[in-house]
Amino acid sequence: MATLLLPCDGSASALLAVRHAIAEFRQGDAQRIHLLNVQPPFSHYVNRYTAPQLRADFHRERADEELAEARRMLDAAGVPNLAHFRIGDKARCIAEMARQLHCDRVLIGTARKSAFVRAVEHSLTNQLLESCPVPVEVIGGAPARMIERIGIPAGVGAGLALLLASQA
Question: Where is the UspA domain (predicted)?
Fold first, then answer.
């Protein structure tokens, strides 16, 4: 039986991975499930002018909010789970927690995007596939929008359209 690490930010894609973990638990393929939420660190400026306890409380509240639906789903299904949160770079924190918790796999949900878009966006999935010490199982979510599937990120496409319009 496997120990799974589920990075979760509360998004629809992340909740797909939670559903997949529930199914694995019911089939007897998973024994232990760890939920992980990674919060981005505050800037140096914010750190300088706010109290450490205030920052810690804020990060904890955000993590609890983002993990709430996943915990509710796991609890409703009778799946034992432990929730963790870290502050820092997402890929680095996930890989470190997988190592520390002796996980057999990382299970991550993601939206379907083209390889070009993933490369341009510096995809978390790609970072994990390259750096994680354990296998990473990717659960594909809903297909990306048409403009993203053909390889042009929406923001870049809109920027190019505005640039071309201003030249006319």
Answer: 3-138
CA distance 108 to 122: 16
Per-residue pLDDT tens for 133-144?
A: 999 999 987 666
Q: Which of these, 136, 119, 139, 120, lies nearest to 128 by C-alpha position?
A: 136
Label residue 146 exposed, middle or buried (CB < 10 Å: 0-12, 13-18, 19+): exposed
68-115 pLDDT, tens per residue?
A: 999 999 999 999 999 999 999 999 999 999 999 999 999 999 877 666
For 87, list phi and psi in degrees, rounded to 5: -120, 125
Check if CATH label 3.90.420.10 holds for domain 2-167. Answer: no
What is the enclosing helix (H) or strand (E) of 63?
helix 52-76
Q: Which strands sit side by side in the sheet containing 105-112, from one edge to the other?
A: 81-87, 30-39, 2-7, 105-112, 136-143
CA-based nearest residue to 90, from 10, 5, 7, 33 = 7
Spatial separation of the C-alpha atoms in residues 126 and 124, rounded to whole Å:
5
Domain ranges of the chain: 2-167
68: helix, strand or coil: helix
